[in-house]
Here is the input.
Amino acid sequence: MSGAGETSCPIFTKPMRFDPGLGAVDWDSLWTLLLSLLVIVLTAAIPLLLTCLHVLRIARNTPGDADSCSGCFVFGKRLVNGSIDDEYRLRLKRAMQLIHEQPECLVLLLGGATSAGAPSEAESGLLYLQQHGLPEQYNIRLEEQSQNTLDNLQNARQMLQREQIDQVILISSRYHLARCRLIANSLNIEHVLCAAEPVLTINAAILWKLLIEAAYIHWFVVGKNWARLTGNQRMLGRVT
Here is the structure.
């Protein structure tokens, strides 16, 4: 990376890497998952189905572009045999479009390594951008410690606080956007959504992914409400 002139965000000589010291998974996640499953059974899955409709609505209606912002988060995706897949590639292409349109925007690639010895999702994303027309001057940082969407946004929030960025663009696949919005709102991150794909294509695989996302959202909401009900500050500290 090389230096830039007058920009709203500085250009760094190398990507900044976060080290938030993530700990081992505790029993809170397992307990709230079981609680979420119990709620689904007791309510005949009606809240889950309503959540599916919410996920579908956001997936269909989110635009594939965004107004000018000083920050952008690009969600990574688990690598396949050490390589990015088509969904992650679309997210990166959307990010590349934004980089060309808004070169002063600070872009944060999110995602750690999901298997031993493999590169991080963020590092693989940067390599793809460098191989596919990334401008000589760019403003990109990597967040390489996270393993899921909640971790992504918790760690990215540290960057927002350091850089005093008020609002960011969240780029991800359409089926994933509802969960991104929910967690960003819970963490008080001002944001706008930007879909990687031009339109939502409905097929069996996408319908399954929408259902999985609805289950994740239901789990998050049940867990957060349980933490509030019981006054569990440890759990609340992870989701707010």
